[in-house]
Request: fold
Amino acid sequence: MGRRHPLVASAGLAVLLVGCLGSGAAHADTVAGTALYVNDAAAGCSDTGPGTAAEPFCQIQPAADAAGPGDTVWITGRGPAYAPVTIRSTGTADAPVRFFAAAGSTSSVDVAGKASAITFSGARYVDMAAIGARTAGATAVAVADSQHITYRIAYAQSTHAVTAPLIAVDGSSSDISLTRLHVLLPSGPGFAAAAGARNITLAGDLFEGGGAEAAGTTGIDLAGDTFSTVCGDAVSLTDGTSGSVENVVARADGTTACSGTGTPAEITVDAASAPQITADYNAVNPLSTGTDYDWAGTAYATAQALGAATGQGTHDLDQTDLTIPWLGAPAEHSPLVDSGDADAPGERSTDIDGHSRVDDPLVPDTGAGTGHVDRGATEFQDPLTVSVGMGTGYVGIPVTATAGFGNPWSDSLDGFTYTFDFGDGTTATSATGSATHTYTQATTSGYIQVVVLVDRADGTRVGGGDLWYRVEPTPDLASAVGCGNAPSEPDVADCWYDIDFDPYAITSDRITFGDGSKTVSATALSDTLRHSYPAPGTYTVTQKITDAGGRTATTTARATVGAAFVGAGPKRLLDTRNGTGAPKRTVGAGGVVRLKVLGVGGVPASGVTAVALNVTDTGATATSYVTAYPDGTTRPTASNLNFRAGEVDSNLVTVKVGADGYVDLYNAHGKVNLLADLEGYYTTKAVKDTQDMSGLAPVTPTRVLDTRSGTGARKGAVGPRSTTTVTLPKYTRGGATVGAVLDVTVTGGTGSGYITVACDGPNPPTTSTLDYRAGQTVSNLVIPCAYSGVFHIYNSAGHVQLIADLQAVYTDDLAGSDEDPSALTGGQFVGTTPARFLDTRTGLGAPRKALGANGTLTVKVAGVHGVPAGASAVLVNLTGVAPTANTHLTAYGHGSLPNVSDDSLTAGQTRPVLAVVPVGADGSVRIHNALGSVDVVADLEGYFG
Reply:
């Protein structure tokens, strides 16, 4: 049916029931009588008396039995429902017996029973108000052989459909007044008066779910009632009943199930009653299957038809005039407003809610009688509303409360007095509608209530408004600052700032970028500022703000700008065997090869900070090492490639470029031929195709290829002159360029050969990534471009097992989208002077002892050799020295040990490998040894922002 039947009276009605007893209470004061008290929650209550305030009755029944003329029974409604009561009290016209809800009750008094909750039996001159009656499918209020009974400002309720009337008056009762009642039931008769009953008044009542009927009743007046019934039959007067039906609103709200019941009319008056009934100023909305009226046995579909045929209901409204809402409450401009008969028999001066009858100036008066009255139980009130608004409250900062009005009737607002209660014990009176207050302490829990009361000059109250308010401690002055950049503009930082809410105005906001450039004065509370830095590095961006309260705050952030990586090659730039890039001769002990890299092999002639070279030794006559460093600078103590006589070894080297465009390769001992293949370069200037530029993003180290187990490719050793294609995990959304940083290992070769890792395939390459001998296990770091998400490994000779571990990816500035949670944003590279930060042989960075089997070193890198806090990864040349068993080293940032390797070693071998190592949240890297014991050396080559 689209509606809900409440199980108790509404909160609004509950308050009304307690607070609107003025007329009865005042009359009680004029007649001498005893005050009796009922309170079942009182500790000292007793049903044997005396019924005083100090020792009240526990139930209503003994108080009713004790009450006499002029007595008033005050009932406190705090606990569960009271037991059913039968009222036999006898008062007089001047001294009735009264039953009222006590002042201070938290709700209306509730009487409940399985059968009748309240029964008037043989009672005379009884006035009961604010005492509700509740039952389950039976009569809630019964009046039997009683006279001059007033039952008002209450509710009668059944939680189940009833067959007997919810309120029943028998034929021996007379002068019964039932006013301002809320009658609630799922369905069935809400009220019935039996034959013989006389002088019954139903006025200002709301029937929700049932109608009213009288059979053979003399003098029943229905005035200003509202009926919301299930299937019609709001009013039924039969068997010679006399009286009137005026200002009644009736509507049906049933379902298709009602069609089987015959769907009675909303107002039925049979032929025996019609000559004795006056009906006018009603409003009727029946079901679509029902009719408005059944008058003297004839159905009338409209009020107009009824009026034309009978002269009754000539001022009635029906479905052709309006649609009546559920419960019949009128709205502005409703035809129900100011259209009733103010002089209708039984009409009250107040509506069901205790509101006075008022004139709506926006609606023409179409009613009759003296005054203004709306049809139905509810009088539409002046919609003037009062509210109060106030900004957020902070301790010690003045805040202004302002009264607001909703005033569709255009009432004059002149001469009002405003009383503000700020909820902390402070009040202020104003004639202007606003008042300013300063709170001295914050609300410790919950909220306080801020109230404004508005009174006219004559002292009458216009209304009030309130809001629940919280006073906060004055927030500290603070701002958030952060910086980032894109690979396509590697020397530009985008720094955003956002000043936290400040109740004071910001008077100064100055930002410096940490490179000696001019201070910027910001003008917005949040913004993004772009700044170009003169050189790679990590800078401190500082924001200093001042507010009108004299407070200052300084916030800093790190901005890292460096070089973006551009994949190039593999392309051979150096081969001392044939004179490529340097004279055709071996490099002797202490010899240095100057290799030009700027403007060579696709490397730009300027803007390049470092190059990635795969350096290979061949034909060495002694155990030695190679150090790569910028030309024109002092050679560092770090090494990049370690080898023994007769070996062929490779290692990826990232080396800064000297100011003259050269890099140097130093050989320590003996003679050796050196080869260098270009893998890519780092630049601070945008290249022609900026999508080729990328930044490094560490990922969880992942094994993407292992032919020993069938991971990433067919299980089994790869053959000679074969190409193995490997697919990478997808880390960026479509269209982004990705370069892979891989640690590649070969093992178990049946002969000597080399592999080349590249994004091109399957044609045999002209360069090598890693050289190996039969049975040897060797590793190297490689950076294939893998733009398409795959890379290829070419094997030159013999059969060999291949292993590849993904260490990081290079992403362009399309990556890192909120649309793709797996997308990664790359950081720029800042090259550093090669510096050794770990050597277990000497105790540098860790205890002076070899790293044992399953052992892990934790080495601090943030704050060391220029690596800033917040660096995402470091570029490290990792060397294992003379392990006691075949083993491998794994470098990682934090968390559990990944199932990958960086440097694979045979017993007694000393071998370096370049590694990209994520920096853990603690600013450290971790290095794990699998088997035996081994000394570990680590040289820093740079970091990624």
Observations:
- Residues 211 and 234 are 4 Å apart (CA to CA).
